[in-house]
């Protein structure tokens, strides 16, 4: 009589948990799509383009700024500015080539 209690489900516990996990994952996916939080496939190219742009601008501005400061301190205007600007551009292009070849990390 103890085997046939009305509160027990005839399905095994593992099957119920798997079913619950599947329904929960499906509900999370549906909610992400509904709220617009689902990741779109086109985002990778946009992110890569922003990274390349940041590398290029950062290299140029960083080199120019450091060169300008050194020129002001040492009184060698415009040589450090030009030299470090070109060095920053070269470093930026090296990083862009590294990013585009897939060895970014």
Automatic annotation (TrEMBL):
InterPro entries referenced in this protein's UniProt entry, alphabetically: Atp1_alphaprobac (IPR016989), ATPase_put (IPR032820)
Keywords from the UniProt entry: Hydrogen ion transport, Ion transport, Membrane, Transmembrane, Transmembrane helix, Transport
The keyword Transmembrane appears for this protein: yes
Region (Disordered): 1-20
Transmembrane segments: 52-70, 76-97
Superkingdom field: Bacteria
Cited function: A possible function for this protein is to guide the assembly of the membrane sector of the ATPase enzyme complex.
Family recorded in the similarity comment: Belongs to the bacterial AtpI family.
Protein name: ATP synthase protein I
Source species of the chain: Sphingomonas floccifaciens
């Amino acid at each position: 009589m103890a085997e046939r209690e009305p509160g027990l489900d005839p399905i095994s516990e593992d099957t119920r948990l798997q079913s619950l996990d599947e329904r929960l994952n499906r509900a999370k996916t549906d909610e992400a799509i509904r709220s617009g939080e689902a990741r779109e496939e086109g985002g990778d190219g946009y992110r890569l383009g922003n990274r390349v742009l940041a590398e290029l601008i950062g290299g140029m501005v960083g080199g120019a700024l450091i060169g300008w400061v050194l020129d002001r301190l040492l009184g060698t205007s415009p040589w450090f500015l030009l030299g470090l600007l070109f060095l920053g551009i070269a470093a930026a292009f090296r990083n862009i080539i590294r990013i585009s070849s897939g060895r970014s990390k």
